[in-house]
Write a structure and sequence with these properties.
Elements (H helix, E strand, L loop, with lengths): L1 H21 L3 E7 L8 E9 L4 E10 L5 E11 L2 E11 L9 E9 L2 E10 L2 E10 L19
Antiparallel strand pairs: 1-2, 1-8, 2-3, 3-4, 4-5, 5-6, 6-7, 7-8
Length: 153
Protein backbone atom coordinates (compact mmCIF):
# COMPACT_ATOMS: atom_id res chain seq x y z
CA UNK A 1 0.00 0.00 0.00
CA UNK A 2 2.80 2.42 0.93
CA UNK A 3 4.65 1.61 -2.32
CA UNK A 4 1.49 2.34 -4.33
CA UNK A 5 1.15 5.79 -2.69
CA UNK A 6 4.78 6.61 -3.51
CA UNK A 7 4.26 5.47 -7.11
CA UNK A 8 1.17 7.69 -7.54
CA UNK A 9 2.96 10.64 -5.93
CA UNK A 10 5.87 10.21 -8.33
CA UNK A 11 3.53 9.97 -11.36
CA UNK A 12 1.55 13.05 -10.29
CA UNK A 13 4.76 15.06 -9.74
CA UNK A 14 6.06 13.97 -13.14
CA UNK A 15 2.80 14.97 -14.84
CA UNK A 16 2.81 18.33 -13.06
CA UNK A 17 6.42 18.95 -14.09
CA UNK A 18 5.63 18.09 -17.73
CA UNK A 19 2.55 20.32 -17.70
CA UNK A 20 4.51 23.23 -16.25
CA UNK A 21 7.04 22.86 -19.06
CA UNK A 22 4.49 23.93 -21.62
CA UNK A 23 2.50 26.41 -19.56
CA UNK A 24 4.56 29.44 -20.60
CA UNK A 25 3.89 28.93 -24.31
CA UNK A 26 1.32 31.28 -25.80
CA UNK A 27 0.35 34.91 -25.67
CA UNK A 28 0.88 37.25 -22.73
CA UNK A 29 -0.06 40.90 -22.25
CA UNK A 30 0.36 43.57 -19.63
CA UNK A 31 2.17 46.81 -18.89
CA UNK A 32 5.63 48.05 -18.05
CA UNK A 33 6.77 51.28 -16.43
CA UNK A 34 10.05 53.17 -16.66
CA UNK A 35 11.57 55.26 -13.88
CA UNK A 36 11.18 58.96 -14.62
CA UNK A 37 8.45 58.42 -17.23
CA UNK A 38 4.93 59.49 -16.30
CA UNK A 39 2.76 56.69 -17.59
CA UNK A 40 3.23 53.18 -18.87
CA UNK A 41 3.83 51.13 -21.99
CA UNK A 42 1.60 48.29 -23.11
CA UNK A 43 3.67 45.14 -23.48
CA UNK A 44 2.88 41.79 -25.08
CA UNK A 45 4.73 38.51 -25.59
CA UNK A 46 4.23 35.63 -27.93
CA UNK A 47 6.53 32.78 -26.93
CA UNK A 48 7.12 29.06 -27.08
CA UNK A 49 8.71 27.05 -24.31
CA UNK A 50 11.01 24.23 -25.41
CA UNK A 51 11.43 20.94 -23.54
CA UNK A 52 14.71 22.17 -22.01
CA UNK A 53 13.01 25.25 -20.49
CA UNK A 54 14.34 27.74 -23.03
CA UNK A 55 11.97 30.29 -24.51
CA UNK A 56 11.81 31.86 -27.98
CA UNK A 57 9.42 34.39 -29.43
CA UNK A 58 8.65 38.05 -29.93
CA UNK A 59 7.72 40.96 -27.71
CA UNK A 60 5.77 44.09 -28.55
CA UNK A 61 6.19 47.42 -26.73
CA UNK A 62 3.80 50.25 -27.45
CA UNK A 63 2.92 53.62 -26.07
CA UNK A 64 -0.22 53.57 -23.94
CA UNK A 65 -2.17 55.21 -26.80
CA UNK A 66 -0.74 52.60 -29.28
CA UNK A 67 0.59 55.39 -31.52
CA UNK A 68 4.04 53.77 -31.70
CA UNK A 69 4.59 50.01 -31.64
CA UNK A 70 7.96 48.25 -31.60
CA UNK A 71 8.52 44.49 -32.07
CA UNK A 72 11.56 42.59 -30.77
CA UNK A 73 13.03 39.12 -31.15
CA UNK A 74 13.05 37.50 -27.70
CA UNK A 75 14.81 34.64 -25.95
CA UNK A 76 14.75 33.42 -22.38
CA UNK A 77 14.70 30.57 -19.94
CA UNK A 78 12.67 29.28 -17.07
CA UNK A 79 14.44 28.94 -13.72
CA UNK A 80 11.96 27.28 -11.38
CA UNK A 81 9.40 29.91 -10.47
CA UNK A 82 11.32 32.68 -12.26
CA UNK A 83 11.44 33.56 -15.93
CA UNK A 84 14.42 35.40 -17.42
CA UNK A 85 13.77 37.19 -20.74
CA UNK A 86 16.14 39.07 -23.05
CA UNK A 87 15.15 41.02 -26.14
CA UNK A 88 17.81 40.33 -28.78
CA UNK A 89 17.04 42.83 -31.51
CA UNK A 90 14.42 45.28 -32.71
CA UNK A 91 12.66 43.78 -35.74
CA UNK A 92 10.10 46.46 -36.58
CA UNK A 93 9.51 50.10 -35.77
CA UNK A 94 10.31 53.57 -36.95
CA UNK A 95 13.58 55.12 -35.72
CA UNK A 96 14.90 55.70 -33.12
CA UNK A 97 16.06 52.39 -31.71
CA UNK A 98 14.31 51.41 -28.49
CA UNK A 99 16.04 49.79 -25.50
CA UNK A 100 16.51 46.04 -25.51
CA UNK A 101 14.98 44.89 -22.24
CA UNK A 102 16.32 42.26 -19.85
CA UNK A 103 13.68 41.02 -17.41
CA UNK A 104 13.71 38.77 -14.38
CA UNK A 105 10.10 37.93 -13.57
CA UNK A 106 8.40 35.86 -10.90
CA UNK A 107 5.89 33.30 -12.11
CA UNK A 108 2.74 33.48 -9.98
CA UNK A 109 -0.32 31.24 -10.26
CA UNK A 110 -3.50 32.88 -9.02
CA UNK A 111 -7.08 31.64 -9.57
CA UNK A 112 -6.02 29.28 -12.39
CA UNK A 113 -4.25 32.18 -14.15
CA UNK A 114 -0.54 32.72 -14.65
CA UNK A 115 1.15 36.07 -14.01
CA UNK A 116 4.70 37.26 -14.64
CA UNK A 117 5.71 40.11 -12.31
CA UNK A 118 9.09 41.75 -11.85
CA UNK A 119 11.66 44.25 -12.98
CA UNK A 120 13.45 45.02 -16.23
CA UNK A 121 16.57 46.93 -17.26
CA UNK A 122 17.92 47.96 -20.62
CA UNK A 123 21.31 49.44 -21.38
CA UNK A 124 21.16 53.24 -21.26
CA UNK A 125 17.44 53.27 -20.40
CA UNK A 126 16.08 53.81 -16.93
CA UNK A 127 14.90 50.51 -15.42
CA UNK A 128 11.29 49.73 -14.66
CA UNK A 129 8.74 47.25 -13.45
CA UNK A 130 6.08 45.26 -15.18
CA UNK A 131 3.48 42.56 -15.15
CA UNK A 132 2.07 40.22 -17.76
CA UNK A 133 -0.81 37.81 -17.65
CA UNK A 134 -1.24 34.81 -19.90
CA UNK A 135 -4.14 34.97 -22.31
CA UNK A 136 -6.04 31.68 -22.05
CA UNK A 137 -5.76 29.52 -25.17
CA UNK A 138 -9.54 29.51 -25.58
CA UNK A 139 -9.62 33.27 -26.22
CA UNK A 140 -6.85 32.93 -28.84
CA UNK A 141 -9.02 30.88 -31.24
CA UNK A 142 -9.93 32.87 -34.33
CA UNK A 143 -13.61 33.39 -35.05
CA UNK A 144 -13.26 31.61 -38.40
CA UNK A 145 -12.53 28.41 -36.49
CA UNK A 146 -15.84 28.50 -34.61
CA UNK A 147 -18.60 26.20 -35.79
CA UNK A 148 -22.23 27.02 -35.03
CA UNK A 149 -24.21 24.79 -32.74
CA UNK A 150 -26.71 22.66 -34.59
CA UNK A 151 -29.59 20.56 -33.51
CA UNK A 152 -29.27 16.94 -34.53
CA UNK A 153 -32.40 15.02 -35.37
Amino acid sequence: MHLLKIKWLFISLLCTWNAQGQRLSGNWQGQITMQGFQGYFNYALQMEENEDGTLNGTSLSMLSDSSIQVRFQLTGRREGQQVVLQELRQISAPPPEWCLKYSKLNLIERNDSLLLVGEWSGGDCAPGKGYLYQIPAFTQVEKTQWLPFSKIG
